[in-house]
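Weekly structure sync, notes
Attendees: PL (lead), two postdocs, one rotation student
Agenda item 3: pending single-chain targets
PL asked that the sequence for the first pending target be pasted directly into the notes so everyone works from the same version. It is reproduced below exactly as submitted, 206 residues in total.
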Amino acid sequence: MVTVTAPEFRGAHRLNAGQGRSWRVLLIASSLVLASTSGPAEVLKPWFAEPTPTLVLDRLDGARIDLADLRGGPVIVHFFATWCAPCIEEMASLNALAAQQSVQVTILAVDVGEVDARVRTFFRERPVSFPILLDRDRSAMKAWHVEGLPTSFVLGHDLSPALKAEEPLDWTGPAVIRVLTRLSQRKDGTLAGETTDGNQSREEIR
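Predicted structure, written out during the meeting:
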């Protein structure tokens, strides 16, 4: 079992995954580097997975959720822990994103390795409008190859891999909103201007 301890510095806490990976370009071949602002970084990069990992977890307050039932629109899967200082700020940012009418995206926040009571207390003081899922034994974290917290994944309409953030992200920043809006408008799960034939390209959004 991977032991997760609270970081002693601001930023994503890196874990030692110790696992080899075999990647193939499926949907995206471009890096999306979003303009930085004060506060959390704004960096989304390509996420290549084959296939997208499954995700079936108990909800903190409600029925079990299966990611496979959420086809039809973009989905953000966000891994966090309540002891992670950057996660607290990002959780507020995700909740602000959920309140925006201009972006249609489903958000799933996955708490890693904590007891239910601690998570419930945390969200009693900081309520959010999206589901909180419980990865009690860290099996989802391992299946998704999460190496640090916070880590977020963005899926396309058919739940295909799209983008990934391994640092705290300002989800309401103009560049991020623009990327999510474009993704929500692409029924094939890709972003306008990107290739699907494996040819690499790079797009900087300002």
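Discussion points:
- Helices lie at 85-98, 116-125, 139-143, 174-184.
- The CA atoms of residues 64 and 179 lie 30 Å apart.
Action: rotation student to compare against the earlier draft before next sync.
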